[in-house]
Amino acid sequence: MRFFLDTADIEEIRTGLEWGMVDGVTTNPSLIAREGRSYLPTVREIAELVPGPVSGEVLATDYEGMLEQGRRLAELGDNVVVKVPLGPAGLRVVQTLRQEGTLCNVTLCFSAPQALLAAKAGAAYISPFVGRVDDIGGVGMELIAEILTIYRQYDFETEVLVASVRHPEHLLQAALLGAEVATIPFGVLAKLYRHPLTDIGLERFLADWQKTGKTFDD
Ligand code: G3P
Fold first, then answer.
1. Which residues contact 28 (CB under 8 A, 6 or more apart)?
2. Separation of CA 216 and ligand 1 centre (Å)
3. Does any domain span residue 215?
4. Among residues of the chain, what percentage have pLDDT more than 90?
5. How many domains does the chain have?
6. pLDDT tens sequence across 145-185
7. Sign of torsion, CA 16 163 72 32?
8. Is residue 218 a part of any domain in this protein?
């Protein structure tokens, strides 16, 4: 299972890379806006920093505009994946860019039929937003299970990129279902390392050895 970091914060990305747990990065307009930085230069900097795939999203909503922005994003680096919103125009863009050899990540997916359309269009990734489904009283992980069942049934190559991950339980469920990728906020990645028994256990090990009065070399 690959972990992408869902952020446009360069320091978070540097730390995640240092930890050796970041296989790629996903950005979106909200995340870049939060950094208060310019759009394309931010995607470029992230693409230069991260060896794996980096999703940069188009801001236009019409076919021509999305295509033009998608091509410009793709020019930023070989690892840039163009993120387009679900809809007829977005999925047309996916088909065109695919013919040009550019990978696309279809975002804002909230239903399995939408994911089916994205796979038929040839998306490299589909991004179902589990947290936002939960927010309106649905069960986001059920959406992941449905999409995985459909994709496996037809051998689609589109990978399921679980997005809008809010807590470690989302990650656990995504892994149990066999989703190929999850994009995780830095705070959730940090939480994955933690367990109270790990902290208590370490404290006890060190305290026990300290009682001997000896050092590491003794
Ligand atoms: O990258 C898109 C997605 O992960 C957004 O998450 O928390 O804004 O619903 P969230």
1. 57, 83, 107
2. 46
3. no
4. 100
5. 1
6. 999 999 999 999 999 999 999 999 999 999 999 999 999 99
7. negative
8. no
**Confidence band of 42 (pLDDT split at 50, 70, 90):** very high
pLDDT band at 68 (very low <50, low <70, confident <90, very high): very high
Q: Ligand 1 within 6 A of 167 CB? A: no
Pocket test for ligand 1, best of 7, 12, 27, 28 (most atoms within 8 A of CB): 28
88-103: per-residue pLDDT in tens? 999 999 999 999 999 9
Catalytic residues: 83
| Residue ranges making up the domain that contains 107 | 2-210
Q: What is the pLDDT of residue 119?
A: 98
CATH of the domain at 190: 3.20.20.70
Is any ligand 1 atom within 6 A of the Cβ of residue 132?
yes
* Average pLDDT, integer, range 1-22: 98
DSSP single-letter state for residue 158: P
How far is the CA of 108 from the CAs of 28, 32, 158, 161, 190, in angstroms?
11, 17, 15, 11, 25
Alpha carbon distance 129, 30 (integer Å): 14
**Nearest atom, ligand 1, residue 131 CA:** 9
Cα of 145 vs centre of ligand 1, distance in Å, is 19
Hey, whose CA ends up nearest to atom 3 of ligand 1? 164
Q: Which of 88, 83, 109 minimizes the C-alpha distance to 162? A: 109
